[in-house]
Specification:
The protein is an alpha+beta fold and 113 residues long. The protein is 37% helix and 16% strand.
Length: 113
């Protein structure tokens, strides 16, 4: 099975999810989104495929969330902020042939393995 993980190596949940994918024998493509960045279309598709909105997939604990006043922002404004500040995207997202999931908690990945 092929899998893509949008990964932050400093995040323990992301590291655990990567290990789970590898333990399951997946051929994993690791995308380090903090350095690679996002496009608006990429995020829109990722969220739609996972059944989430931008406001559900934003990291509310990041300083940029507060600094940019995103608490009452539209999904469109949140998407724009995520493109400009990749750290605002919750992590990790995993994509396989069976679907897309936000692996928070890690067990969410079981649905698409």
């Amino acid at each position: 099975m092929d899998a893509t993980i949008y990964h932050n190596p400093r995040c323990s949940t992301s590291r655990k999810t990567l290990a789970k994918l590898e333990d399951a024998g997946a051929d994993v493509t690791v995308v380090k989104y903090l350095t690679d960045g996002w496009t608006r279309d990429q995020l829109s598709k990722l969220f739609a495929d996972a059944g989430l909105t931008a406001s559900q997939a934003v990291r509310k604990r990041e300083a940029a969330y507060t600094d940019l006043g995103l608490a009452d922002a539209s999904d469109e404004k949140i998407l724009d902020a995520m493109v400009e500040h990749p750290v605002l995207v919750e992590r990790p997202f995993v994509v396989t042939d069976k679907g897309t999931r936000l692996a928070r908690p890690v067990e969410n990945v079981d649905e698409i393995l």
